[in-house]
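#onboarding

Welcome to the new folks! Below is a worked example of what a typical request in this channel looks like: someone posts a single protein sequence, and someone else replies with the predicted structure as tokens. Don't worry about understanding the tokens yet, we'll cover that in week two.

Example request:
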Amino acid sequence: MDHLVKAVAEDVRVYAAVTTNLVNEASQRHGCGALASAALGRTMTGALLLAATLKEKECITVKFQGDGPLGSITADASAEGAVRGYVAHPEVELPLTNGKLSVGQGVGRGILSVTRFTGLREPFTGSCEIYSGEIAEDLTQYLFRSEQTPSSVGLGVLVEKDGSVRAAGGFIIQPLPNASEETLSRLEKNLSELRAVSAMIDSGLDAKGMIAELLPGMDIRYLATEEPVFRCQCSKRRTEEILLTLELKDLEQLVRDGHTEVCCQFCGEKYQFNKEELIALLHVANQLQEHHSNGRR
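Example response:
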């Protein structure tokens, strides 16, 4: 089962997660090739780990807007552990680089933005240039440059030849403000010797096992374990609200067509609307326009 663990040890805090199932679901929903599965899976896991630092009811959006062939990659995650995401061109494949998926080349260069929705009137958005396109390195750079939070982010997705996701997960480790030079040196050494995230998970380690490999010999205190899930907020009702934002002439054309299908870009769910439903929506849209016209008089 997918899970996310929060822990502290001496002068550091760490969040680690196994996300194999939810990444596999996202990959299947979007028809991702191996490259897109790796890029999207890393981004979704990274968003989940960042969201784990938020308060209840808060959420976060991570977006890679690169110039690579995968196009934009976006993931939304909440403090409660719900995540969704999509990649603009899930079918793209590239030659391997040193036997590994060319995620950095697929993402390319551009802007990484992170938006935190904390209940304030305006959400906070920070951004930085994409550092490598490998996702984990970019999030590490973002946290340091835009949020002045020294961190190390590790992410991994192992994809089978048939396209299924065999292992996925990641971690974020952050020294606390009072961390000693000895602790920082120890962390740097541990990270330099650490196995790849996907290799750790594929070997059978859970999130606590990853944390133990991150912090050998340290007194680890586990704080909480959560169950992250792939979950989209879309529904037919919300899709109706989107259709109501169309211009009247466009709604009238849909009525003449007699049917329309709307596909959610985040989860691939398809919503069907027949002619009777479209006529009802057009009626509501006419009423709304009349109400707004009266309000301006």
